[in-house]
Every structure is written in structure tokens, then in C-alpha cells.
User: Fold these one by one.
Assistant:
Number 1:
Amino acid sequence: MSEADRLNKVLEREAPAVFRCLSPLGREAAFPKGIPYQAAMANGTRINATIGQMTDGHGNALPLSIMEPLVESLDTAMTFLYAPVEGHKSVREAWRRRESALAGRYAVPVAMPIATHGLTHGLNLLADLFADEDTTLVLPKPFWGNYRLIFTMHAHCKLATFDFFKDGGFNLDGLADTLAQIRGKAIVLLNLPGNPTGYALTPDEAEKITQVLAAAPGPLVVVVDDAYQGFVYEGTALRESEFWPLAKGLDPERQAVFKVDGATKELLFFSSRLGFLTHPYCTPGAEDALLSKLKFLIRGTVGSPPGPSQAIVLRALQDPGIEAAFDARFRVMKGRYQALKRAFADLGTDRLVPYPFNAAFFMLVELKGIDSEVARLRLIEEESVGTVSFAEPNALRLAHCSVDEADIPEMVERIVRVVTT
């Protein structure tokens, strides 16, 4: 029996939904007993000639003398030597503690996160593990365009969409109706709050989504893209991640749940390319089997996540002032959000129709009487305003995260001029 077959049998017995949803590549995946495996076994030996990185001869980093002072406050080994394929255990443990502390009343035990080369890489790992030509990706539209690249163009799965909004909130009926039409394996991807809508669920919507997904016949993979976790500006919206009620309420026999998040937005560390992939704790055997498969996929693409980013994130997570630092930036974002809300509260025109937004970095405004791409180009040329156009719906996305609060009223005035003239 091959190692991949052994892992598949473990998952079939201990994590049935995960096993049933594996793609052909996912079924073949098993971390090979190559250089990283053999080097890990040799840890602690007096003379270690396994791994191809220059050290001082005793396992310590030996960076260029001009580079070491640039990061003198960071752990030298973590910064300059290869990271483990799954990421450093210390930063993975610290991230799990932080995320679990944000779970609130929904808290459930989770496996040790895998460190990824950014959130896009985390999504790509799940596409490799589960998506194929017999899989349908279910998405509310409009959605972040990279989902199409990752899941349909890269992994060749089918796409089924439904309108994001209905009656001023999340379209629960659209989700249920779309799932009812699917025969076979599906992946449901939820980005709440997210890009481009900037919409966070209400607690009632979160519970009802869990009920809709729990009623799906399966097999089903549910992926929660938590890039914007924590940036929720209204008390009526769910502050916790949708991952937690799903992990608590779904049946591991029929539904597998995964969380993709990271330092990019949550710690405003946009250049870090450090994300994390988490799933609910199942059994030691199933956890090891999934880890092996994910390490296989990481080793065959990016090799391992970046060490300097892990060193910086670990230091931040260990600092007792991290939440105060986050809150300071959160207040800046909330001020911009509130300024945008005020600017759109009394437009004096029905040719701009904002979609509901209460979170994250964005809002989406539907245009009447002018094509969104035409409006985008005119805004650049005539008003010196940059926006992003969406053909379906005919809308502009405004990233208020990158606009000074004082400039937001003027930005909206300039958009109104283009749309109404």
C-alpha cells in the first residue's frame, strides 16, 4: 500500500467528508520522504549534512554581515534559514491562540494552522486538494476575480453563482436554491466581510447560512476567506468569523470546513505573504493525514512560507500591545467608513445606488445610466479619481481603506459629477 493510499484510508475512516471531496491530485498527495523529511529526522545530530543552506557549521544562521543588522531585533534563525514546509510551530501556535480568542461564543477546537505563502496560496492549496472537473464552486456574485483564476482556470472546476444581496441582506434563498441544483461534489466559498461588497453578516444570517449548508446533501467543502476579519463597524453585524458557527454546526460526515486568513489585512502587513489555513480538530490520525497532503502541495509549489514574515508576525503576536495597536488602526478605518456612509446618505440623485456595506475595506455602488467602465475611465481622466469597475453588476468598487477621511466627501462629489453629467 502506498503512503497516499494509507492516508486516504485514514481520512475515509476519521474525516469522511474530507475524503469524499478529495480531487485526483488530493488523493495522490502524500508528503514525500525527501530532503525536508530526512533533514527533520536528523535534527539534533552532532554533524548534520542534510539540508542545502549555509550555516556556521553548528546549525546557526550565517547571514551576510551587511544584512544581519537590518533585522537585529528578530530571531536570526527564523529570519535567515529555511522555514519548515508547514511553517514554524511557534508562529502557528500563536496564530491559533489569537484566532481562537476571537471566536467568542462559537469557539470550537481547531487543528494547528498551516502557514501559507499568503491567503491566495491558502485558497490555491484547497483548490488543489478538492477541486476538479467534477466539482462545482458556489459563489455569491459579485466576487473577487481571483477566485475564478484559482478554482475554475487553475483547477478546472465548474462555477455556480447567485446574487449576493436580496432585500437588503445576504441572499440565503439564492444559496439554498443553487445548492439544490448541484449533483455531486461542491465547494462553497464565503468571503464575509469581504471584497468587493464590504458586507458582514448579521448573527441571524450566520445561523441561517449554517442551517442551509447543514441541509445540503453533500459532499461539501466550505471555505471561509477571512481576509478582513476584525474590520466590522456596526454593532448589528457579526463580529466573529463565519467559520466558527459553521465549524460548530456542520456534520463532518458530510461537510468539511476550512478557514483561510493571515497577517495581510488582520495585521496590516500587506507585503508579508503570510497566511494560515485552519480546519476544525478531528482526530490525530486525520490531522496528520491532512498535514501530509498539504505539505506535499506546499513543497511542490512555494517550498515553504517566508521566514522573515513569520519572525515579524511572531514578535507582533507576542507583544501585549498588539490589540491596542490594532484598535488604533481600526478607529482610522471606522472613521473612513463613517465618512463614506455620510457622503452617500444624501446624494440627491438616484443614479448611484450603494449596496449594503458595514465592514472590511470596500463598498460597491451600482450606476444607473452610465457604463461602469466608462465611468471609471472618465473619473481618472476628468476627476483624478481611481476606482475599480465591475461589469456585473454595473458598479464601481470604492476602497475607502486607501482614501484619507478628509478626502472622502470630495471623492463622492466627483463620482456624482461624472455619473450625472
Number 2:
Amino acid sequence: MPHHKRPSPLLILTLILSLLFAQPALAQTDADPPVVRAVLFYSPACPHCHQVIQENLPPLIEKYGDQLLIVGINTQSIEGQELYQAMVEHFELPDERLGVPALVVGETHLVGSAEIPQLFPTIVEEGLAAGGIPWPPIPGFVEVYTTSVAQATAQAESEIAADPLPGDQPAEQSQAGSPQSTAATPLITPQAELAPVQMDIPETQSVAEKFRRDPVGNTASVVVLFAMLLSLIGVWRRLQRPPDSPNKWGRWAILLLSVIGLVVAGYLSYVETTQSQAVCGPVGDCNAVQQSPYARLFGVLPVGVLGLLGYAAILAAWAVHYYADPRWREWAAHALWGFALFGTLFSIYLTFLEPFIIGATCAWCLTSAVIITLILWAATDSLRPEESS
């Protein structure tokens, strides 16, 4: 990178525990055993990152010990975002390869909680057999790493000089490496026990800072959010007016929109259940949204699957309303409208989360929000006597 800011204390804590618990070196002599070095980009708000850090990497670290060194970079810090962007530009990653967890080892980029555990063990084994793998050529990483090591060395020496009692040094060193010293995983090293990843959005970021992480996409979310809120007012006012002539287009609009909604929700379900990387397009950061804790209802049910079930229920109610026995049609009309109303309200909630809580926008989610709102408009006419007769 052309310009490097002074590392923040959070990034220093994030990188420096390797010095406190291990003795890594950026260069390896012939007498040293082979070492595989890798950089893991993660986010504390990413469930897939949590899986990789807590479940997939510890067995490898235990198996290879000092011969495997992994440095974790928190992408929710400013420096972490800059390093991640430098990595993306260096590897010229396409949109479908963006997102975290991202593990870079040598010239290889792995992404996702499926690809990393599947391919990384073989890379480590082959790398050790070949004499080791140096730090990946991420622009700016070595400078940040060496600066952090130098600062940590100076800090450690000053602490020892200030309190040279033999009994006090281990306690201070333990406190520096404690998981409670930072809000996220500080560092992954062979010698240090992995700290738990906090599954939430750090409270240190203000709403404005989260919004600025994706200004174009988040602005689109706000526009869609206000449009949905205005639509609710419009639907309520429409229900207050006496029935007019039947709206014939609404019948087929519901069918077409529901089919499109099924496709969108089906793709999101695939991404969430297979832990794949979504194709995001030019606006927004779909993977950041899909990897957030809000991508699962109550932490269990993927929101995409819920949308898939919702559109299927709307299609079923639509079929009953227009083609089933007449005695079921009025009930189906109210069910259709109720499903659409619930979907719109839930989409309003999700759309609010994206710009103001998550700090990223999913274009697929916005598409689904627009679709369900249009279905609500069309379904409102199904409640009129002319349409239900």
C-alpha cells in the first residue's frame, strides 16, 4: 500500500501475541525446522469464522505445533480492512471469492468454512515437505507485522523495567495474552490457546461508522426501507376505501412475483446452508450480511430458508384462493394477505439491520424485500369481494 497508518492498539494486540507465546521469525534459516505461515482474515460477527477458529484450526495447530504459524487479522478494524483490501487487489479476487473467513497461505487464497478445512491440511503437509511456506505476499502485511513486533518488544521491556520483580512478570504477561484483553480473537498461534470469538457486532463502532463501511449499498437499503414503510401506509389506506373494479393484473402478478421470490430465497438458502460465497454484484456486500449472526433466526434457522417457506406458503394460498373449492377461497385470501404482511414486516426488520447494525447490504435481500412488498400490494386486492367471488 502507498501509505501505512500507525497501527492502532487493537491491531497491535491482535498481532503481537505471537511474540509473547512463540518465537516466530519472518525469515527462516536452513538450520530451522520448516514452518508454514498463513494469515487468517476474520470478523467477530461471522459465524463461519467462529467455526474455522474454534473447530477446524485447533487440531492442525495441535498436530504441527511450532511448524504452523497463523496470524489473525480482524477485518472490522481500520487496519484490518486496509490489509484485506490489499490482499483482494493483490490476488485480483472476483466477487464470488470475497468474504471471510479468508485464509491466505503463500500464493493460495482459501475462503469459507467449507473450503478452508477441506484444502488447508493438504497445503500444510505439502508445504512442510517442501521446506516451509513464507508469509503471503500481502502488500503492507510485513511492515505492519514487524512494526507491531518492535512495539511489543519495547513495551515488554518497559514493563519489566518498571516492575522487575520475578513474581510479577508472568502475571503481566498472562494478562496481556488473556482473551478478555480484547473484544475479538487476539491471535492464533501454535502455543497460545485460541480465545473465543465474540459472536456480536463490536459496540465500539458507531452507527455512522457502520454505515460508512458500505455507503452505496447502505443508502440503497435506506431507500428500500422507507419505500416499504410508505407502502404499509398505502396498503392500510387502500383497505379503508370501498371496493372498486376488480384488479385483474394482481392475480398473475402474485404468481410471477412469488416464483421470482422462490428463486431469490432458494439461492440465499443455498448460500447459507452450504456456507458458500454469494455472488454479490456491484452494490453491497452480501457475504458480510450472510455471515452475520442475523443470517439465522434464533441462531438456528437460516433466513433464506424462512423466505423459501414463506414464498411457498404464498403460492399455496394463491392456488387455493383462485382454483380451490369456493368455500375455501375467502380463507385463502386472508391467509395470502397475512403471509405477505408478515413477510413485509420481517423484511423491514432485516433491511433496517443491514445499514445500521451490520454495516453492509445484501442486494439479494433487498430484491426479496421489494418482491414481498409488491406481493402485499397485489394481495390487498384479493380481499375485495369482486376478487374473491
